[in-house]
Amino acid sequence: MAFCSLFCDSLALLNGVGVSTGEALAARVIGWLDRKGQGFPVLPLLTACSRCLASVRHMTRITEACITAYFTHAEEEGVGWGPVLASLQVPELTVDDFLSESQSGGSFLTLYAYILQRLNTEHTVANEKRTLALLNTWNSQVFPSGPYDEAKLFLWWHKALCVYVEHLQQGLGEVPAVVAGLLRLQTRLSQMGEERLGSGLLGAIGLGRRSPLSNRFRVVVRSLSAFLSVQIPSEDQVRLQPSTDQQLTAKAQQALVVLESMPSSKQYADLKDSIGKAVQFIHYPGHCLRDGPCLLSLLANLLYPDQGYLNIIR
């Protein structure tokens, strides 16, 4: 509490300066957390910035930096999200602005923490459906700026898959509606897995600029996209139980061909083993839709073992 009060007094300085000075000071705080956050009381600062900062932009950026520093500079292995959820206080009066700024500013860990808080606060099917709708909206609108923040989206997808599967298994939602949400996710994954960006006039004809995302990220999204294509044969049918008869649609076959051919490209040669394990997982007839989170966990372990914030899905 003493640290929180001290940080509130310090952060209050940002509220009384001009825009350019405020931006510079916020950038200094974020840069310092990134470089020297080890051993620093990050969580009290996390609470203080959500309590004391007037600028929602500064609030979301410093919040994201605090959460990132908490996992990056953790002195113990396996730190969890519990302390983060206890420390984050999303301002009720400006929650929409907070979420909008987090989305546009790439504060993906902050949004994930909000999702967990929301699901933990109200354990109802209606709240879960609203939360899934929110995740779908964010997922359709955001695009990682590069390798630094790309893996943060795995947390969103893992949570969405878990809730979707639970609703299907327990009959908590209409199958077509749930499948529609999963297909939207699959489509977005397919888009993110492209070598070149599809936005703009040049993107529409396949001549967009090269994607800033890493090769290992493309392995993850193409694998998960192919898996969903296999497990969802049609808009009103899903494979919720394993079976020996795994009939592949043309869409699923094409997705698997693309995935299986990746190691033949020089840029993916060093990822051959991980791709092979993903292909083996997808082809195994004992796996069904409920194993989607397990595939994501497998790929996170293989390709992003150093990201502490992913421990929750490992």
TrEMBL record:
Residues 1-22 form the signal peptide. It comes from the Eukaryota. One of its GO terms (cellular component) is cytoplasm. Pfam families: TPR_Epg5_C. InterPro entries: Autophagy-related_EPG5. One of its GO terms (biological process) is autophagosome maturation. Keywords: Signal. The keyword tRNA-binding does not apply. The keyword Signal applies. This is Uncharacterized protein. It comes from Hucho hucho. The lineage of its organism: Eukaryota, Metazoa, Chordata, Craniata, Vertebrata.
